[in-house]
Design a protein that fits this description.
By secondary structure, the protein is of the alpha/beta class. 38% of the residues lie in helices and 16% in strands.
Length: 334
């Protein structure tokens, strides 16, 4: 969407005093039927990385960090970001390590995909941007990252929106076998555990991503241009290494950074999250079936609501941007 049209919509919302989510939804990330990339992308040094991120909304607005999952990228929030910006939030959408324009500052740095490393990236980004506290909202890897920050650094998390609930990994628990039906949904983790799988992913990352998108969100009728927009982020030179290590680490067949062992022990204990939280499920999620949220209720000590979004799969913010944005607005009021 060009600047004039975006400013026109934002001004109209302010003039009539309506929330963006009260209007019939029009994709703000499309112009003439072509999905538009989030731009411009800014770069900032944070911790081990030079982080690429998109920013929208007033600089003095309440900060909201939108955190993407795998195999997706920042464009999962292409329609969420402008809705929140129109409500006065300062919206930050970073490329996670190994994605988009985010790069390691040193060639010698371990390409580590373990959960604590990804979470520390976001803490470092907040420090670099001088954001003391933010609303954290995400899905998949992004939800797990938000969970970790809310649990271990509660002073940095004002509130949280988490798709699929409480996602902090316990590697010992991950060793336990699940039902064949559930194991089937995680087939790619076992594929990635092999040299053949790593080579296959290296050679076929786009075909692989397309397959996962369709399996994870069987009702989502995305077009080729929408897919290509996100797939460009997977050309990052560290993408394969980060993804492969992430899933091998989860299965305890690859070691993480010993310096993070103390953090991982805390995470393995299942720390409780006190921040106000809205958990979301899509009722058509092909990999994480919707629940009533009761199984992990004990992991939240603060105010929490659970919502199931109809007709939506795993990439919930991109498939249902209004519902996701409304959850962010609502959790800010809990």
């Amino acid at each position: 969407m060009n600047t004039y049209r975006r400013n026109l919509l934002t001004g109209a919302l302010a003039a009539v005093g309506l929330a963006a989510t009260e209007l019939p939804f029009v994709s703000l990330a499309r112009a003439a039927g072509v999905p538009q990339a989030l731009a411009p992308i800014r770069q900032i040094r944070a911790g081990e990385l030079d982080v690429g991120y998109y920013e929208a909304g007033p600089a003095n607005g309440k900060p909201v960090l939108l955190l993407h999952g795998w195999p997706y990228d920042i464009h999962s929030f292409a329609d969420v970001a402008p809705i929140l910006a129109a409500q006065g939030y300062r919206v930050i959408v970073p490329h996670l390590r190994g994605h988009g324009t985010t790069r390691f500052l040193s060639d010698a740095t371990f390409r580590n995909g373990q959960q604590a490393a990804v979470a520390l990236d976001i803490i470092a980004l907040m420090d670099a941007l001088k954001i003391d506290k933010a609303i954290l909202a995400g899905y998949d890897w992004g939800a797990r990252t938000a969970n970790i920050i809310a649990a271990l650094w509660p002073e940095r998390c004002k509130a949280m929106v988490s798709v699929n609930g409480y996602l902090i990994n316990n590697r010992e628990r991950n060793k336990l076998p699940l039902s064949p039906k559930v194991e089937h949904g995680w087939w790619y983790q076992f594929y990635f555990a092999t040299d053949r799988g790593q080579a296959g992913y290296q050679a076929n990352r786009r075909e692989f991503g397309n397959l996962i998108w369709k399996a994870n969100s069987p009702l989502w009728n995305f077009d080729q241009a929408t897919f290509d927009r996100s797939a460009a982020s997977w050309d990052n030179p560290d993408y394969i290494a980060i993804v492969i290590h992430n899933y091998r680490w989860r299965l305890s067949i690859a070691e993480g950074d010993p310096n993070l062992d103390a953090l991982e022990r805390k995470l393995a204990a299942g720390p409780v999250i006190a921040a106000p939280t809205i958990t979301l499920d899509g009722d058509s999620d092909g990999v994480a079936p919707a629940t009533d949220g009761k199984a992990y209720a004990s992991r939240f000590s603060g105010k929490r609501e659970h919502r199931v979004i109809k007709g939506v799969g795993h990439n919930l913010p991109q498939e249902a941007p209004q519902a996701f944005a409304q959850a962010v607005i609502d959790v800010d009021r809990l």
